[in-house]
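User: Please predict the structure of the protein below. I'd like the answer in structure-token form so I can feed it into my own downstream comparison script.

Assistant: Understood. Taking the following sequence of 190 residues as input:
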Amino acid sequence: MTSPIVVRPLAPASLGDYLAFFDGRAFTDNPHWASCFCFFHHNPDPDAWDRRGAQENRSDVSALIRQDRFHGFLAYRDDAVVGWCNAAPRLEIPMLARSKELEVEDAGQVGSIVCFIVAHDHRRSGVATELLQAACRSFAERGLTIAEAYPRAGVFDAASNYHGPADLYAAEGFTPFRKFDDWSIVRKAL
């Protein structure tokens, strides 16, 4: 029998768990992404992203977590982190706030889910669903009225589905809001 999933919000006190997950099992089957530390959407200088390394991203995301300025959820199974969801009010995610393509009039009412990472040996066991549900509950508790996500179209491998697969969102009641060539914005009223 599989142990239950416990989802907890990221907090300064869980920085060690976050780093242990990213330093270890998060990208064992996709080492190309191992340097990100889920900092991409919080990077203040998108033009410099390709010049940033793992230690710089690790250091910067650690500082944000210590300052309680980086939010999301950790999924635990048997006291070990097996998944992560980067989810926060839309206005707290710099890349979304500065993107003209993603601009929306109701940004102050939106909670955004920008990334999922589930350890390869825990995929397809409900981890992402539990993380998504926790994010939506948290948004509603904070008074946000919309949950928003950005799945890519036509991708089925885990590495390319880092925004979360479209079928995950559809199963949780998200519907298309805006479509682009290879991805979309999906939303759910809270």
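That's the full token string. The longest strand covers residues 80-89.
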